[in-house]
Amino acid sequence: MPIIQMFMLGVIVFVTLTIFYFVPVGMWVQGVVSLGLGRIRIIDLVRMRLRKISPRLVTDGVINLHKAGLSHISTDMLETHYLAGGNVQNIVSALIAADKADIALKFETATAIDLAGRDVLVAVQTSVYPKVINAPMEGYLAAVAKDGIELKARARVTVRTNIPGLVGGATDDTIIARVGEGIVSAIGSAVNYSQVLENPDNISRAVLDKGLDAGTAFEILSIDIADLDVGKNIGASLQADQAEADLRVAQAKAETRRAMAVAEEQEMTAKTQEMKAKVVESEAEVPKAMAQAFRDGNMGIMDYYKMENIKSDTIMRDSISDTSSSSSKDETGKDS
Predict the structure, then answer these.
(1) Euclidean distance between CA atoms 150 and 234, whole angstroms
(2) Based on the number of CB atoms within 10 Å of its own CB, is 112 exposed (0-12), middle (13-18) or buried (19 or more)?
(3) Among the residues of 68-133, which ranges form H helices?
(4) Would you call 143 helix, strand, or coil by DSSP?
(5) Average pLDDT in the 297-310 region?
(6) Model's pTM, two decimal places?
(7) How far does CA 7 lie from the centroid of its chain?
(8) Which among 20, 98, 265, 279 could disulfide-bond with 103, CB atoms 3.0 to 4.6 Å apart, if both were Cys?
(9) Domains and CATH numbers, the chain
C-alpha cells in the first residue's frame, strides 16, 4: 500500500509540474497585474509553450511596450516576428527608443529592417546620436590639381540613419566611396593646389552639393576635411617620363638607321667583290685569246715579244715612279 501511495504521489507531482510548465500561471498573473485582465490570456501562454516560443520574452516585451505607451502592439505580433526569426527584444527596445526620440518608426518597418539583417536598435540610436565615418577608413585619398601637384586628403563624414532608407539602402562603404569620388573630383577641378590649401571648405561644399546620400541608409550632415597634405609633383614626373620615353624612341630610330647603313655597306662590299671576280675572270681569258691568235696566225712571236717588252717597260716606269714619290716624301719630312 505505501508503494502505491508513493507512486500516485509521484504521478500527481509530475502532472502538477507539467501543468505549471505548460500553464505559466505566474506570467499570466504578472500580465494581469501590469496590463489588466484580458490583455494576456492564459491560453495564449499555453499556445506559446506548444509552439516553442518563450512566453517570458513575449510577455516582458508586451508589458514594456504597453508601459511606454505603445499599446497597439499585441502578443500575436511579437509571436509572428519571433517565428519569422526576428529579434523580439531588439524590436521592443528600438520601438521604445524611437517613440521617446519622436522618430516615426512603425512596427512593420522595424520588423522588416530586423529581418533584413540590420540592427534596428543601432539604427535608431544613430538617428539620435549621429556617427562619424572616416573617408577613407585608412590612409589618404590622393588627387591631382590642374597644375600637376598631388594632394592627399582625409575627411570625416557625419551621418545619421535614414530609417525609411534602411531597407534596400546602401551601407557605409557606399558613402565612403562617393565621398572619396567627390573629393578627388573637387581637387581635380582646382586650378592650382594652393587654392585647395587656402580654402579646404570648398571641397566640403562641392561634395555636399552633389547629394551623395541618395539611395543610401544614411543622411549626410557634414563633411569635414580632417587632413590635407601636399604630395609629389605628378605633372613634372609625367613630363620627365615622357621625355625619357621620347629619348628611347629616338635612340631606337637612330639604331635602326645605323643598322640599315651597315647593311647597305655590306651589300656594296659584296658587289665590289663580285666585280673583282668578274675582272679576274676576264683576265683569265687573255692567255686563251693569245693562244688562239697564235694558232690562227693573227699574231707572231715578234708581236708577243714586243708586247712583253712594253709590259716590262710599264712595270719599270711604275717602280721608278713609286720610288721617286717615296724619296720626295722622306726629304720633305727631313726639311720639316
Answers:
(1) 6
(2) middle
(3) 75-83, 88-100, 107-115, 120-128
(4) strand
(5) 76
(6) 0.55
(7) 75
(8) 98
(9) 20-118 (no CATH), 131-233 (3.30.479.30)
* Three-state secondary-structure class, residue 20: helix
Beta-carbon count within 10 A of 21 CB? 9
Strands 131-135 and 218-233: unpaired
Query: What contacts 54, CB < 8 A, 6 or more positions away?
Result: 48, 82
Distance between CA atoms of 309 and 123, rounded to whole angstroms? 125
Model confidence band, residue 34 (pLDDT cutoffs 50, 70, 90): low
- Arithmetic mean of pLDDT, 236-243: 81
What DSSP letter does each residue of 180-195 carry, written as one string? HHHHHHHHHHSSSHHH
Integer Cα distance of 162 and 214 in angstroms: 10
pLDDT for position 71: 80
Contact 228, 197 (CB under 8 A): yes
**pLDDT for res 13:** 62
The label of the residue with cell 505549471 reads 20
How many CA atoms within 13 Å lie on the side-chain side of 129? Answer: 4
Cα–Cα distance for residue pair 173/314, rounded to 1 Å: 102
Strands 149-161 and 131-135, by their bridges, are: antiparallel
Instruction: At 274, list the grid cell.
Output: 663580285
What values do phi and psi take at 153, rounded to 5? -120, 155
CA 144/CA 186 separation, integer angstroms: 10
In angstroms, the CA 71 to CA 226 distance is 47
Consecutive H or E run containing 47: helix 42-50
The residues near 39 (Cβ < 8 Å, ≥ 6 apart) are 31, 32, 62, 66
129: cell is 546620436
Give tens-digit pLDDT for 118-176.
888 888 888 888 888 888 888 888 888 888 888 888 888 888 888 877 777 778 888 88
